[in-house]
């Protein structure tokens, strides 16, 4: 890595030397890209000391994606793992995980309040309502608060068009998937509006018990009170239901026998988000906004990941759970931006208050495990009994989140931009636990900071460095789960995890970018080193039960590379990837003195491929106007399946093909996902015992998607 870093510095210096004599009027698009997410205001790339990428409306439109991962994986350093039916895990400066280390925003506002993270929150995103997607890699807790650790993804919605526009489309594949989508908007006088809706349905797919349906509607209304004052209303409504097929055993995976071990697991979600924003420009150097918002979410599950089965302890029985997590939010966020002539200074300051009452319950279900020949894997599970008397969790809580933040940027020297930022977050939880009949209050607070600098010796090359902090408080569902796994009428005094602490992270980063040959070639890179402390441990105790503790430590380091070359109008080539290492530093897994494995110190984290990347070659033939085609390559290197580093999954390389043709207002397109029909798994995991069997989250066979879209725009 040191050699690669030195090579990049040499190349950078060569570029600078070669361009010293060039005019400052060189058109450099990459350095002049405008980003919102990195600094909460419209900011040029060359003034942003973080690793940030932007997926444009063109990229989103040409992807014709059925799920968000098909778009987001085009970002260097990002691996969004498809779990089926728009469910996912994420890997940005972390292994592939469902942990609360990512922050998902919709137009700058978190989709979930602090303390109620859900890795599947992106189920609620409407892909037909996106103007762009911005991805910040690394901690930005000093700007957006907790959970902005591995990365932050901001989904920016379409605004009302000046002229009437309308589009309608349908798409379907050979595995029973189909979607209808429509969007339109216009501006009439002082009022603009945009409405977008999708309805997706999956039936009788390649995997048994894998149906789902999703309906989303987004409505935005802008009222331009005056040239300097605007009132903006956004409303999102979504409804989702999905079977949860889970993983398959090794034998079924390699035989392509894609059958679910359950026919009763599910996930369902109802979501409503609405916000009202008042924006005002005081003058050319000052602007403010105030947003009030409301969320209403209901999530119910009989999750496949909740099934517990052991081949050595009564292997014909198993347990599962049914749970429900419902919350509402009432909140406000205000922000002011002020520019000063002195050192070209810009100050951004704001505050947030969020009140989110939540109810959660979970109880056990008893299952029968029907085994495959040999008795080491399960053919299928059956429900024997639902046990609402055996509570795993049952609580109500009022969550009060408050925060204040400020960030300052200025030019202390020519071609140098210095950025400073800080934020204080306070989360108070007033709770009533129906299992141990307790009530009380817990407070989690943290001040986080960042400092960064940009050096831009030329218009077409720049460098940056930053130090940033991140933190993630324990999710309240972790706090209020019984240690024994059941409560209720068992007669056993339930214990809970009231002493869990927030995980904290320190990130050190340097990077740069350059543009050559009149913007035909763009290159960017980032090196990072991040340490995590007080991460959640699952420790085995002397009585063979388990305990959660906030005492783990991990280390994450790597390089992210992005390369784009457009030699002519017909051809565009994009290459992106990351090399990363994720290790346990202090990670205890057992207090049992006779266990051979006491801790995981020094071991590589599972589900952490060192190399991963996504590249694409686009072709827009001039001899065939309005036609496009591309071939995409997704690479995931091998990684350990278990924590003790004994077995690896080989990883995969897959190719996707996309093509489309537009004739007047009609567009027809086709995607071939997994072009070579490769057998691979999105994720493979197993326990640490020698007898543990792997679970394969099988990926779809070759899939042909066809679509038709009508696009109408009335321009003056």
UniProtKB/TrEMBL annotation:
Entries under InterPro entries matching the protein: Beta-barrel_TonB (IPR000531), Beta-barrel_TonB_sf (IPR036942), Plug_dom (IPR012910), Plug_dom_sf (IPR037066), TonB-dep_rcpt-like (IPR039426)
Principal subcellular localisation of the protein: membrane
Alphabetical list of SUPFAM superfamilies matching this protein: Porins
Gene3D superfamilies registered for this protein in UniProt: TonB-dependent receptor, beta-barrel domain (2.40.170.20), TonB-dependent receptor, plug domain (2.170.130.10)
Occurrences of domain TonB-dependent receptor-like beta-barrel (ranges): 224-675
Protein name (Swiss-Prot/TrEMBL): TonB-dependent receptor
Entry similarity comment: Belongs to the TonB-dependent receptor family.
Stretches assigned to the TonB-dependent receptor plug domain: 46-152
Superkingdom assignment: Bacteria
Keywords: Cell outer membrane, Ion transport, Iron, Iron transport, Membrane, Receptor, Signal, TonB box, Transmembrane, Transmembrane beta strand, Transport
Signal peptide coordinates: 1-17
Bilayer topology term: Multi-pass membrane protein
Organism: Flavobacterium plantiphilum
